[in-house]
Amino acid sequence: MGRHPLSLLIVVLSIMLLPYGYTWKEYRIRRSIDLSAANPLISDTKLPKDLVPSGYSLFLHPMLEKSTFTGRINITMVCAKSTNQITLHAHHDLSVDELDLTVIRMDDDSKIPIRRVDRVPKKPLLVIYFHDVLTVGVSYEVRLKFNGNIWENVEGIFEGRYKQQSNSAGSDAAGTESEGVIEAEEHTYVSTYFRPHNARRVFPCFDEPAYKVPFNVSIVRPRTHHVLFNTELERTEELTPTDAKHVIDVFKRTPPMSTFTFGFLVSDLQEVPSLSDEKDDERMKPAIRIWARRDFQKNVADVQQRVKLALNKLQEYWGVELPLEKLDVVALPGFSYVKPADNWGLIVFKESELMRGYYNLAQELVYQWLGSWITPHWWSDAHVNKAIAGFLSADTAIKIDGGDEFEGKYPMTILYSIYYEFSKRYPHSRITAMKQETTCSKTELVLRMLNYTLGEDTFRRGLQKFIQHREYKTFYGDDVWEALTKQAHLDQRLCESATVNDVVNSWITKDRIPMVKVIRSYENRSATITQRLYLRERPHDVPEQDKMLWWIPIVVVTQDRLNFGNISTVKWMKQVREVKLEELPGPDEFIIVNPEEIGPFPVNYDERNWNLLATFLQKEESRTKIPVYTRAKLLHDAWNLAYAGDLSFGTAFNMTLFMKYERNHLVWNPVFTLIDHIGRHIDMSAVHKKFEMYVRTLLTPLYEELVINQQENEEMWKANLRSLAKNFLCRAGYKPCIEEAQRAFKKWMDSPDPDAGNPVANQYICPVFKWGTREEWEFGLQRVINFPESRVKSERTYLLKTLAGCPSQPFKIDRLLNIMVLEDNGNFTDNDISLIFKMLSGGSSGYSTLFNFLKNNWDAIKLRFKERESLWDNMINSATGLFTTQEGYDMVSQLYVQHQGEFGTAEHIIEKSLKNIKEETKWSDENLPVIEKWLDSFLASNGVADQKFLG
């Protein structure tokens, strides 16, 4: 599909929609269970069930100065099935002393003769073979010695370093200078990250979540450091009489736990002083301690209080205390992994993660209960574990302070991404890791739906019932749904013939979501509700879509009773295609189905109901009677349904009329995405100019009002919304913005050494390259060509992206293509060229110029790319695959006929392009006349401030 130049805003929007301070990657992936890492383990060969571990006795000696470690381990196990071998996990990076390996029969302390020891090729397995079979019911102990390397990457045991100010006269908690000379000292630490299967990198073990047994652990440390472990320190012993630098810390026996929850940290970090009363700290169970480098303690001074508050909320929710004596929370300098190390009783964060709200803390605390204390039996249920943690951590944050860190965007950030992904013809682009993440996100939304429809009290009591009697044990995903079912039946929140399993499985076993359509019979005061697969991408030819059905709760709010607090389910669609609703309001009053996005599905109505909603929303006194989430949903659903071909664009555009008065950022955020979607399809048409005038009319008042009312300490959402509106208007040619950008850019052009660095903020570069002079654009091109090796490469990449993706004038793009492709300028790599092709697909000015360049220079380009098939394929894809009109189809078809048989590896690409363009042309033929008619009417009755815009 084609992209409008303004579609570059989609990148900005994806960030703007997130809770403040999070990146998209962090928000979606940063939760502790790494599904992309756990997913390959789902099909992993499990260890034989012949022997079951009952305990570990582990001695570890990390040698910080050598970046290595040694150790020994005794593993006790019970023979459950007759066998002549013991199979353990041991990573290839771990050296095991196969000569000094003993197996003891525990009932008589006799040694078992070993036939041989094997390391299985290409598998992290160590197999010990015996001459005779082991006796069923008897306990055995394997005693092994091992050694390995400590790596910098966060897998198994890893090391880190940080610098801290040293001040002989002392410094304050923030590390500011008082007296004396301050020098930076280097400090070292060693820590672990075992999730999901990295324990095998450190010691031989049964490295599967279902094996939960106690550990007796001793760890050697330098006297200058201390060790934090899953449990409290029991005693400290001398290592050897002659070693004055090291000691052994012996820790209390752990509760039964999985290997992936094992963790320790050897460091000289300091405990952060508590802000609460000492007696309160003594009474607190578990005891909470915060650790950080001295220079950083001021930044995490309130973390203990926040952990206590979140912990109390979660203990109230679960109805049971966390069964730990202590909980250490660490701000680890230099810790680069996006997910905290959530060992049981020891949570390790990167420093920046501890400076935000309650969500981060709450989700790691949830994993202390659900993950460590009660554990998924196998990785196939990890997404259920993660989904519950995601839902409860958001719920906890909202209950504590209203979820200030979300700025009201939870769960919309997740929801919109789900709507988008599952409405594609090929969700996830067949990327397995993405599938795991989106399945988890959808499961989280289904949990939220159940919390609404079963009722919060029933839902909580069901989860409490689920964890009862599973302490220190494991669970399957179905165990959660069965516990919720029992409670829902007990509380009469679900009919006896229905189960939560049925509801949930209808959602999480499909990589799809439904659309609900409501057609009212106004005379009979009734409605017919149908469900079917929701698809946005064309063609709508998904196999077996007619067989896909969901359990859908029907929650209805009517205009005569605008009670959004009443979320009772009127009726369940029990995997049926159609249901009837009766006793609806009169013909002049609207209804809203699925208010507040209770379920993760869009809703369509007949035209009359949509127009009743549009009229109601335009009245100031009535609009605010509909909550923000529901206003956003109505707008989002209308535009996406129109985009998908399920609703007239005239009706969808009517739903935007209230935006003239709307100032809530949650309602505005999806607007930019929706505008972008339309822009992609009308970019080359005559309707595009009228659409831009509409967009300018929509956004200019919002932006100028936000500028006039700007305050120094305003809410972050206002700054974000203003920035988003400004970026869009800049690209649309808003004169004040262009002039500001050109003034900033001129300082760079006038600088004596322009290649030394870029003094211009990124927000100014694209407007200048799009609307500015040839001289300004050429200046940017020379900065790329002359870019010094010493500077950060990402700055050059950004310049290159904007040089190609922003201009609307073909001569600028032609100049870039000539230099890179025809002249084969040595300053541009193949990766640069691929990036340019990708950026040119952002709008019709880019891909149509690229098409003409290809058509006019066919022979020369073929010669250039003769041995560079990947570039050739990329070029054909970007130059031919994005047209959306009959004119574009004719152009591409003519090229195909003219050069048939010459496309080589790209033959299938242009054939696919022609097929897609034909489909998009149908969309244009059906929708452009409707859009143009509505825009003509709108522009005739609304003043357009075009004098404020270029072009």
CATH class of the domain at 47-166 and 182-371: Mainly Beta
**Can you tell me the overall shape?**
globular
Uncertain stretches of 5 or more adjacent residues: 1-33, 168-181
What structural category characterises the helix and strand content?
alpha+beta
- The number of helical elements comes to 30
Fraction in beta strands: 15-25%
Mean pLDDT metric: 89
DSSP E strands, number: 31
CATH architecture name of the domain at 47-166 and 182-371: Sandwich
In which range does the helix fraction lie?
Answer: 40-55%
Could you tell me the radius of gyration in angstroms?
32 Å
**Sheet with the most strands, sense and barrel status:** 9 strands, mixed
- Can you tell me the CATH topology of the domain at 47-166 and 182-371? Immunoglobulin-like
Distance between the termini: 25 Å
CATH-wise, what's the superfamily of the domain at 47-166 and 182-371?
tricorn interacting facor f3 domain
